[in-house]
Specification:
Elements: H1 6-17, H2 23-30, H3 35-47, E1 66-74, H4 79-87, E2 92-97, E3 104-110, H5 113-123, E4 130-137, H6 153-156, E5 168-169, E6 172-173
Antiparallel strand pairs: 1-3, 1-4, 2-3, 5-6
């Protein structure tokens, strides 16, 4: 198992903010480390599955403006089967098995409310083993996995509070609603 140190975490924090930052710039910001060492560390972090370097599509910019969570109640013994079948649909961005009232939780992106209705009734609802679905429209996303870091990481590396860098959207200063 790869053991992360402060240098690794510093690299991760900087890459999380800008995935295209050059190794030389990371080395400069962290200090006392060469660009080659940063490159080697990034390769090790990638090889050990700790980080992934990839393009993340912004759904809104390509027309997928409707976001919803769907909670699925499943017949006993079919939870994994239903979860794996749901994961095959390109509209589905997240699938997890759950405990409690629902058995499977999914998030999805579609272009319209009509497409959402058709997808949940004609696709999800017809998966063998699905008993019932509950769909919740998500009109506002505040944070997603693509920006997640363990608690305290940005502050530990002098990156400051990431919430301080929130933009003004629709005339609302997002910092006003940031946790304190």
């Amino acid at each position: 198992m790869y053991k992360l140190d402060q240098t690794d975490w510093g690299i991760i924090v900087l890459l999380n903010k800008d995935g295209r930052i050059p190794s030389a710039e990371i080395a400069r910001r962290l200090g006392n480390i060469s660009a080659r060492t940063v490159t080697n560390r990034i390769e090790a972090l990638t090889e050990h599955g700790i980080i992934n370097v990839r393009a993340i599509v912004n759904p809104e910019t390509v027309g997928y403006n409707v976001m919803a969570d769907v909670f699925i109640e499943v017949e006993p013994g079919r939870v994994r089967e239903v979860a794996y079948l749901a994961a095959k649909f390109p509209q589905v961005s997240y699938v997890a098995c759950a405990t409690g009232e629902s058995d499977v939780s999914i998030s999805l992106r579609v272009r319209s409310i009509e497409e959402l209705f058709d997808f949940t009734t004609e696709k999800l609802g017809k998966i063998p083993g699905v008993r019932r679905t509950q769909t919740y429209l998500l009109p506002l996303k505040i944070k997603d996995l693509d920006t997640w870091l363990p608690p305290g990481m940005p502050e530990a590396f002098g990156s400051g509070d990431l919430m301080e860098k929130l933009p003004v959207k629709n005339g609302i200063d997002q910092k006003e609603y940031a946790p304190r």
